[in-house]
Amino acid sequence: xxxxxxxxxxxxxxxxxxxxxxxxxxxxxxxxxxxxxxxxxxxxxxxxxxxxxxxxxxxxxxxxxxxxxxxxxxxxxxxxxxxxxxxxxxxxxxxxxxxxxxxxxxxxxxxxxxxxxxxxxxxxxxxxxxxxxxxxxxxxxxxxxxxxxxxxxxxxxxxxxxxxxxxxxxxxxxxxxxxxxxxxxxxxxxxxxxxxxxxxxxxxxxxx
Amino acid sequence: xxxxxxxxxxxxxxxxxxxxxxxxxxxxxxxxxxxxxxxxxxxxxxxxxxxxxxxxxxxxxxxxxxxxxxxxxxxxxxxxxxxxxxxxxxxxxxxxxxxxxxxxxxxxxxxxxxxxxxxxxxxxxxxxxxxxxxxxxxxxxxxxxxxxxxxxxxxxxxxxxxxxxxxxxxxxxxxxxxxxxxxxxxxxxxxxxxxxxxxxxxxxxxxxxxxxxxxxxxxxxxxxxxxxxxxxxxxxxxxxxxxxxxxxxxxxxxxxxxxxxxxxxxxxxxxxxxxxxxxxxxxxxxxxxxxxxxxxxxxxxxxxxxxxxxxxxxxxxxxxxxxxxxxxxxxxx
Lengths: 208, 333
Hints:
Strand order of the largest sheet of chain B: 4-5-8-6-7
CATH topology of the domain at 231-332 in chain B: Enolase-like, domain 1
Radius of gyration of chain A: 20 Å
Largest sheet of chain B: 5 strands, antiparallel
CATH architecture of the domain at 231-332 in chain B: 2-Layer Sandwich
Helix content of chain A: 25-40%
Oligomer: heterodimer
CATH superfamily of the domain at 56-132 in chain A: Beta-grasp domain
Number of strands of chain B: 12
Order of helices and strands of chain A: HHEEHEEEHHHH
CATH superfamily of the domain at 231-332 in chain B: CO dehydrogenase flavoprotein, C-terminal domain
Number of strands of chain A: 5
Largest interface: A-B, 33 and 28 residues
Helix content of chain B: 25-40%
Distance between the termini of chain A: 25 Å
Distance between the termini of chain B: 49 Å
Structural class of chain A: alpha+beta
């Protein structure tokens, strides 16, 4: 069983490192901002209040079974909301125009491209992202199959591929590889791991 | 993306009332309905569509697919493309519609896109999608750079000196061959429009794409009862095997009895400025023996008035062969 690097400060994960340094960098910006504003603004809470987006609208999303009360600019896509507001960064932004499938999530159990939908259109709906499928200790069978079959190289498209593949299990799909390829054609893999992706999906379909 | 006001319509009447304040009809209007969002949000990110107000109609209960009393099918405007393509009645009685829908977009997009939204799908012309370029459809009077520019994917039928943009829909091509009727609710009441009259040719007003007026809401689409013995086939030819728009496609609904064509409806996709019903091809085939020579004659008739652009002369022969092959498939049953 791999060690949980997130909880071990001596062995930070790559993401933990990025989030931590990102926060430090942002803190630097905020500090200088605060210094510049020090004469007119007494406390930092007031500054944060000022930074609220004008025209933001409250919504409630159920993401991976957890209710999240959010306030979003109407222009916010479901993708940006998941990544920036909820900070679940497993869902990736590729083309941002519905052409690559990297942003695939499930809405009420059906796969969609989250970049072509506004967060406000999903008030009260059930969203599942890659983080909601399995855990490092208990992978979803599709995640395990992608690992076993080497269904990725750089990994950027992988969460979208897996979200599509999991949804495909419940969709009408013929038994042959060609049918799987057709239904996975909305997920582009720049590295070209397609053969192994199809193998992973077929492995799960045959065992379920 | 420009800022906009977002409201959710709780009833069709409320949606229509709100949208009726728009200065122009749905496409490109300042007040827009949003359903699946697959066309609109894409174009809003490109600043091609810049509505000041979005009315979310996803909560309207217009997503039902049900039998009509005469044995036809009533398809709610909000029925998702994937639900329509896999509906048992569509699979049994209107397979050409299922084939057409499943040949378009991706599984994710078909889960989002709606029937009414697909009817209003906008062109993929690269000049239309790029606000740095002139475009008569996007900004009337600015010109059409596609005519002398990149036009390989664009139309060869129904074009004008002002616009050669292709209608990209597969669903609409099948619906044209099935003689669907579009039902519209507007501030002045209900009306129904045959699909052949719903989309407009570009002419001198390419920014007007349909007969919709401000406030109009497509509530449902009806298909006439299926005719016994009719064979239906959709064939789509494109640069990739999947997830690509058509270079040429054909939808055929045909009945062959005693070796002769007793009924035929033909529509083409990927080649027209609107979903292209070809009455010329139908007339060339009606009553004739169902053989390759006559299928070729029908294809010649369908493309007789085709006007190729600088990069897409190949589409004329491609569309003809596409139609001949589709007719052969339908004749074999």
